[in-house]
Specification:
Number of helices of chain B: 3
Number of strands of chain B: 15
Oligomer: heterodimer
Strand order of the largest sheet of chain A: 7-6-4-3-2-9
Structural class of chain B: mainly beta
Radius of gyration of chain B: 38 Å
Largest sheet of chain B: 4 strands, antiparallel
Chain lengths: 332, 250
């Protein structure tokens, strides 16, 4: 818990900012390497939410990026280097005439608009906040003197870096939501030369987004779900006829999923009764229809998909052998 | 003699035992080494589910690094962090057993370097020797589901996606119910081809002379018609072939 004397002390030192002992490497405008009056900010704290990506206190930090004045209002902009929240900013405001000594304010972050302006309205409100922070300000006279009218004072990134221990991160601390998706089913492709759809879409199809609360899993077709409380484990498996049994129809991946043209299956392709699987009980990839006695079978010269099965009269002809054809010279 | 009234924060605490209790001895359990005052100048500790108070239970000196181990009231290790002694930063990120960030130690690199003179190995501290002040300790409560962990130990936290593939389908039944269907993939054999283009879709025979097969895909070639049972034409299977011939041949 902060003591009054603590804030008073902080009006005379850099805290809650890190006192720089090494020069800042900065290639930007030199007017951004400016001193912040020590009495302006006397305390600060931040909590990084799970998705802010704040995981390494050496690489990730929070820093003061700008102070702006619009009329009687001062705006304090804080940003972070955390990769997941780099475009989010916490903005605090103070009325230069009515701000109390050691006034405290808590805010949540908002998405920074492309053009950072002096107005607080530059912060987008649609994105969910990624971090929150509090600010305690001290005397504002010195900063008002730096901004006698509307304007912005920008600070080089990292010049005014918040003490690491003032930042708490919740990265990895909780499972916030579950979303569902399914990869598309494998679709039948037409044979070569038959045309048809090109490459299939391989992106997952979203089924639900951001489920929260007390989630439960239900066994569907052929599914087995077992819960082991002592291990905090859910085991999801499969078994024929398990769960809701075997499906009688295909299960669509999404509402409105329909078979492709020319098929009655969601995965496409012909039905069993739409193709010849066997002829007279014989099934083979390359079935041979053999010509027996008296039959000739040949492919049509005109139509490659036609077999001509015809009687072969040459097989029926009986030709007398030479000794059978000659008559005996002796009288009968 | 001039006196600095307002010292910078780190300079001020460097001369105190903060972030440890004022009565912390900072001495190792074997009594051989003392953690120099000002080595650690600030801390923020928020391990999930830890039971305060927390204390620095060990410093492990390695060839190029120093490892700090934090334990809780139950003497359970709840966090640890390493820093490179050759290029020490002023902050040591602490992580738990699942590699989640759970705190930070702010250190003075120029004082920290003195620890490299300690023998290599783990140097333990008793709980009373290095207890952190409560203001630095904010254990996160164990509330709800923190993460999903698969059989390999990989964690998923935050906003997690469950994606069905190869015949497994996830569906939302209602606001908080997820249904799992296992229906398989009828065309799974195709995706086994690598590359996928190796699979050539067969061109099926759909009709013969305009006639379709039955509902089982079977097609019958019959000799003549039933009004002429005396036909000499014979059609029959033999050795996985269909033989068409005239009766009476050799």
């Amino acid at each position: 818990m902060a003591r009054q004397a603590f804030y008073g002390d902080n009006e005379h030192r850099d805290y809650p900012f890190v006192t720089r002992t090494d020069p800042l490497t900065f290639d930007g405008p030199p007017d951004q390497l400016i001193a912040l009056p020590a009495e302006t900010i006397v305390d600060f704290g931040a909590i990084m939410f799970a998705t802010a990506g704040f995981t390494d206190y050496v690489e990730d930090y929070v820093y003061l990026t700008a102070i702006a004045r619009v009329g009687e209002i001062l705006y304090f902009y804080f940003r972070t280097t955390a990769v997941g929240a780099a475009d989010h900013v916490c903005v605090f405001s103070r009325n230069i005439h009515s701000a109390e000594e050691f006034e405290r304010e808590w805010v949540t972050s908002g998405e920074l608009m492309p053009a950072e302006t002096a107005s607080g309205s530059s912060i987008g409100e649609a994105a969910a906040p990624l971090w929150e922070a509090f600010l305690v300000t001290g005397a504002l006279d010195a900063i008002v003197a730096m901004l006698p009218s509307d304007g912005v004072v920008r600070f080089a990134p990292g010049l005014w870096r918040i003490e690491p221990a003032r930042v708490q991160t919740l990265a990895g601390a909780s499972l916030q939501s579950l979303s569902l998706a399914n990869f598309p089913r494998t679709h039948a492709t037409p044979p070569a030369g038959c045309g048809g759809p090109g490459e299939e879409d391989s992106e997952p199809i979203i089924a639900a987004i951001g489920m929260t609360g007390d989630i439960r899993f239900a066994e569907g077709y052929n599914a087995v779900i077992r819960q082991e409380n002592q291990n905090n484990t859910l085991i999801i498996g499969a078994g024929v006829k398990a769960g809701a049994g075997e499906p009688c129809e295909e299960v669509p991946l999404y509402d409105g999923e329909a078979p492709p043209d020319g098929s009655s299956y969601l995965s496409g392709g012909p039905r069993c009764d739409e193709i010849v699987n066997s002829i007279n009980g014989v099934s083979a990839a390359n079935l041979i229809i053999e010509a027996g006695f008296g039959i000739a079978i040949r492919a049509s010269d005109d139509d490659p998909n036609t077999l001509i099965v015809a009687a072969d009269p040459t097989a029926l002809a009986t030709c007398l052998l030479p000794d059978e054809t000659s008559m005996s010279s002796e009288p009968i | 003699m001039s006196r600095i009234i307002y010292r910078e924060f780190r300079d001020e605490v460097a001369g105190t035992r903060y972030p440890f209790n004022d009565n912390a001895t900072l001495r190792t359990t074997d009594g051989l080494f003392d953690l120099p005052v000002g080595t650690i100048v600030d801390a923020s500790l928020f391990p999930i589910g830890a039971t305060p108070p927390l204390y620095l239970s060990a410093i492990t000196v390695k060839q190029r690094t120093l490892e700090f181990t934090i334990s809780d009231f139950r003497r359970t290790v709840v966090a640890s962090g390493e820093t490179d002694t050759g290029n020490a930063a002023d902050a040591v990120t602490l992580v738990d057993a699942y590699d989640r960030p759970v705190g930070v130690l702010v250190v003075a690199p120029d004082v920290l370097i003195n620890l490299t003179a300690w023998p290599e190995g783990a140097h333990a501290f008793a709980q009373a020797a290095t207890t952190f002040v409560p203001t630095c300790v904010i254990p996160a409560p164990v509330r709800g589901v923190q993460a999903l962990v698969d059989k390999d130990g990989d964690q998923l936290f935050g906003d997690v996606w469950l994606v069905g593939d190869q015949g497994v389908i996830f569906r939302q039944v209602d606001a908080q119910t997820i249904r799992v269907d296992v229906v398989g993939d009828p065309l799974s054999a195709r995706v086994l081809c690598d590359p996928l283009s190796l699979f050539k879709t067969p061109n099926f025979i759909r009709t013969i002379n305009g006639c379709s097969p039955d509902r089982f895909g079977q097609f019958q070639l019959t000799a003549g018609d039933h009004e002429n049972p005396a036909t000499v034409l014979r059609i029959y299977p033999r050795n996985d072939r269909i033989v068409v011939e005239l009766a009476g041949g050799e």
